[in-house]
Amino acid sequence: xxxxxxxxxxxxxxxxxxxxxxxxxxxxxxxxxxxxxxxxxxxxxxxxxxxxxxxxxxxxxxxxxxxxxxxxxxxxxxxxxxxxxxxxxxxxxxxxxxxxxxxxxxxxxxxxxxxxxxxxxxxxxxxxxxxxxxxxxxxxxxxxxxxxxxxxxxxxxxxxxxxxxxxxxxxxxxxxxxxxxxxxxxxxxxxxxxxxxxxxxxxxxxxxxxxxxxxxxxxxxxxxxxxxxxxxxxxxxxxxxxxxxxxxxxxxxxxxxxxxxxxxxxxxxxxxxxxxxxxxxxxxxxxxxxxxxxx
Length: 295
Prior knowledge:
Blueprint: H1 2-18, H2 23-33, H3 37-41, H4 49-57, H5 66-79, H6 86-100, H7 109-133, H8 138-163, H9 172-188, H10 192-198, H11 205-214, H12 222-238, H13 242-250, H14 252-259, H15 263-269, H16 271-293
Helix pairs in contact: 1-2, 1-5, 1-7, 1-8, 1-9, 5-6, 6-7, 8-12, 8-16, 12-13, 12-14, 15-16
């Protein structure tokens, strides 16, 4: 569910960035962000807007599409029906029914923002129901571990959408467009008003980067997600799950990358390189967590 919501955010903000630009240059980064060029180009000749949007929304053959994510979420919920609430199951079924009925006409670019808004709202409703009804045992801990690891990865991908446009603006029109894009990025992550509380005047790229990666007051920031993961693993370790303490130790490279980082370090490495390193560490840690507890 977290992946479905964040994919909707990425598509929504990219549609905003893509207006007036080259179609392929605007939409190919979405495919590259998820390292799915081979699968995509085995079925499509070019990264046209309608094909990329279809690939990531209602293409059932793409395992990371929104529809595939929701279908998997519903199947996971079905197998765990005895430990989740009736409200959680009912809402997920309604959402599943709506999204499986979407067609190509529904996801045209002039309607994409509305579709993404509905997806985000449905995912947020799900999160609220889970918060209010799921019993606080190991099910709760593992649910949140998956949620925050996924959120950290998707937040970094959301910023990476902008990284390929980071060349310095050269004129007033370019500067205005650049500010507008950072504004859209903040809004896509529901972070605009939170950012304004920290920085009430102006939108500067370095401040936005710092906000998304290093500000622990913003719940979608990478540092906030990783701190939550560490807290959850500590809770599982107290419940005598010895593998949880081992995983806390193995979380150290990720923690060091974020807690020891700052905007100047990101600039030195390059935003794209920094995000690549972060995503590799996240993928490695997520795989290890799955192997330790579920395989």
